[in-house]
Amino acid sequence: MGRGKQTAVLELLGVLEERQGAAEYGWVLDLDGVPREGVLKAAASGLAELAGRDERAELSVRVGSPVRWAARLSGQGRDLLLYARSQHAAGPAEPGPEYRLVELMPSQMDVVRVFTGLADRLQVPPAPGLDERVRAAVQDRVSGRWRVYLTEEQMAAVAYGLWLHKMAGSAAEANRFSRDHGIAHTPPNPEGGSGAAGTTMAGVGGTR
Fold first, then answer.
1. Neighbouring C-alpha atoms within 13 Å toward the C-beta of 70
2. Residue 142 and residue 148: Cα distance in Å, rounded?
3. Angle made by CA atoms 181, 146, 164, in degrees to the nearest 5
4. Dihedral sign, CA of 99, 103, 109, 111?
5. In the chain, what is the greatest distance between 2 CA atoms, to the nearest angstrom?
6. What distances in angstroms separate CA 134 from CA 65, 112, 128, 129, one per listed residue?
7. DSSP code for 64
8. Helices 172-181 and 106-117 sit at what angle, rounded to 10 degrees?
């Protein structure tokens, strides 16, 4: 489904939700001005429910005129609206100057998702807001990379997650992140002063 069609579906579901919330009988009727074709397509996709013959007959009696069709959001339709709105709210369309565009390969994004999913059990948890930024990421259809805006603190957390993955067996993701974005996690030095872990910045200014 193209982005234009996706937008049209979400707009229709939003209208159904609004009209259904104001409806006296819990159904959006053909009398309410919602496009029938769009409603039928939503119903065919499982995003809306259509009233059966008996329900339409009852509604016709209640409103005092024939009801040709009546619809309401399905559970899946409500979930889709909730998910789409959560994605939109998770990240600003125009992040502030503290954010930097980061492009991650699919394998790198898989690692970051595992890392943020372990947040409650990690001794060194992800930076605040990283999980929301990850949910707001958008995959470029041409390059296949995931585009996400992160602060330096969030980038350091990503580097740490990739380092964990590296130490567990695969170094490719962490090495690629270091090359592309100039940041890598540095484990504690047992011979150093404080022995605190950190990150190193190579001064790379952008993605490639």
1. 23
2. 16
3. 60
4. negative
5. 85
6. 50, 8, 12, 9
7. T
8. 100
DSSP state of 131: H
Give, for all 208 residues of the chain, the pLDDT tens digit.
555 677 788 888 988 998 888 888 889 998 777 888 999 999 999 999 999 999 999 999 998 999 999 999 999 999 998 887 765 544 444 567 888 999 999 999 999 999 999 999 999 999 999 999 998 888 887 788 999 999 999 999 999 999 999 999 899 999 999 999 999 998 776 565 433 345 665 433 333 3
Answer for the pair 50, 71: CB distance below 8 angstroms, yes or no: yes
Nearest-angstrom CA–CA distance, 27 and 121: 45
* pTM across the whole model: 0.53
The two structure tokens encoding residue 101: 């565009």
